[in-house]
Automatic annotation (TrEMBL):
One of its GO terms (molecular function) is shikimate 3-dehydrogenase (NADP+) activity. GO terms for biological process: amino acid biosynthetic process; aromatic amino acid family biosynthetic process; chorismate biosynthetic process; shikimate metabolic process. This is Shikimate dehydrogenase substrate binding N-terminal domain-containing protein. Keywords: Amino-acid biosynthesis, Aromatic amino acid biosynthesis, NADP, Oxidoreductase. It holds the Pfam family Shikimate_dh_N. Residues 16-98 form the Shikimate dehydrogenase substrate binding N-terminal domain. The keyword tRNA processing does not apply.
């Protein structure tokens, strides 16, 4: 009996973009979690040279890439190519997460909340600090 293919035409695609990105462990980590949860998703890394960023964003829309993690050097440079960014990302001036909702790309920044949680978990007092 043949096993069901891991990746099919219905498989949802998530990715991380950067330049360079070959060193990223994100695909290994995320694919293990997706498989563990039996989700029909695959997570890949795209090495995008700086001059190709705009075309890559158009490709994400057309290919219906469901979610994009953004790393160096694109956290700021990608903003003009998005359809919307949330208020926190706008205030910070950087995006590290993009959600594709029907070819409409929404940028968010989760770095700040992640850093805040790490500080609080470490017992740091951050009330009133900037």
């Amino acid at each position: 009996m043949l096993k069901k293919p891991y990746i099919t035409a219905r498989t949802n695609v998530l990715c991380i973009i950067g330049y360079p990105i070959e060193h990223s462990m994100s695909p290994i980590m995320h694919n293990a979690a997706l498989k563990d949860q039996s989700l029909d998703y695959v997570y890949v890394a795209f090495n995008i040279p700086p001059n190709d960023l705009k075309n890559a964003v158009l490709g994400f829309k057309m290919l219906s890439i469901k979610g994009i993690n953004v790393t160096i050097p694109y956290k700021e440079n990608i903003i003009p190519y998005l359809d919307e960014i949330d208020p926190l990302a706008e205030k910070i001036g950087a995006v590290n997460t993009i959600k594709n909702e029907g070819k409409y790309l929404i940028g968010k920044n989760t770095d700040a909340s992640g850093a805040k949680k790490a500080l609080l978990d470490a017992g740091c007092e951050i009330t009133g600090k900037k």
